[in-house]
Amino acid sequence: MNIGPHHEAANYDEYQQYQPQHDNRRGFEEQSAQSAQNVQPAAAPEFEKSVKIHGKAAALTIVASVTKKGFHTLNIEGANGMGDGTKKFDWQDKTIIQITATEYRHLLAVLFGFIPFIEFKSHGPQKNKSISVKRQQNGFFFSINEGGKKPKAVPVSFDDAYLLGVYALDVFARNYPNIDSHCLLNTVQTFTQLPYYPVQQ
């Protein structure tokens, strides 16, 4: 089959317009850098956004947060039931407590069974909020208090406490990206065994 001059010119123009993505005359490092700029990073997988634990009279929501100083921590929110015979809770009147950087390791210590009890006081602008966590025979007992409001008391099973503990450890580890979670937990446990550790009953 014969191809006329006009068709040959068209094919040549198309060839001239084609530009390879990688020029063999360019260095490998330069091409690699160019390719890296064109690659969009994959979205990081999300862990549980929050842990929700519902009791008969009150409920808890535990969610990751960041302090003003950039410390990754937890907000523990408590709400009482509506009191109308339903399983709904009054989240409009919830109490929120943000665990401080100093308190966090103590919370991990009780959740993982290294100590039996913790209580954090003087939270909030008016210093009238507190939270206590106590290990019991069948699980844990959370109590959130705020001046002038009914306490939010929630029993937490060991199964739910396990999920909460893993979530809390995951959030805590974000503050120490160069240390694995197992090492962090060992450090928390070692700290509780020191003679000056404040043991609470």
Provide key terms for this protein.
201 residues; alpha+beta; Transcriptional Co-activator pc4, Chain A; 2 domains; four-stranded antiparallel beta sheet; disordered N terminus; plasmid
Q: Rounded to an integer, what's the Rg over CA atoms?
A: 28 Å
Q: Going across the major beta sheet, what is the strand order?
A: 1-2-3-4
Q: Helix content range of the residues, please?
A: 25-40%
CATH homologous superfamily classification of the largest domain: Transcriptional Coactivator Pc4, Chain A
Determine the N-to-C terminus distance: 97 Å
| Gross geometry | globular
Count of discrete structural domains: 2
Approximate strand percentage: 25-35%
Which parts are unreliable, with pLDDT below 50 for 5 consecutive residues or more?
1-26, 38-45
Q: Return the CATH topology of the largest domain.
A: Transcriptional Co-activator pc4, Chain A
Beta-strand segment tally: 8
Which class of the largest domain in CATH terms?
Mainly Beta
| CATH architectural label of the largest domain | Roll
Structural class based on helices, strands and sheet pairing: alpha+beta
Q: From the structure provided, what is the oligomeric state, counting identical versus distinct chains?
A: single chain
Order of helices and strands: HHEEEEHEEEEHH
SS element count, helices: 5
Biggest pleated sheet: 4 strands, antiparallel
Describe what you observe in this structure.
The longest helix is centred in the last third of the chain and has 16 residues, at 158-173. The model is unreliable at 1-26 and 38-45 (pLDDT under 50). The strands form two sheets. This protein has a four-stranded antiparallel β-sheet with strand order 1-2-3-4, with helices on one face. The chain has a four-stranded antiparallel β-sheet with strand order 5-6-7-8. It has helices spanning 5-17, 28-38, 101-111, 158-173, 181-192, and strands spanning 50-54, 58-66, 72-80, 95-98, 117-123, 129-136, 139-146, 152-157. With 201 residues, the chain is of the alpha+beta class. The chain folds into two domains: 5-38, no CATH class; 50-192, Transcriptional Co-activator pc4, Chain A. It is built from five helices and eight strands, in the order H-H-E-E-E-E-H-E-E-E-E-H-H. A hairpin with a 5-residue loop joins strand 2 (58-66) and strand 3. The radius of gyration is 28 Å and the shape is globular.
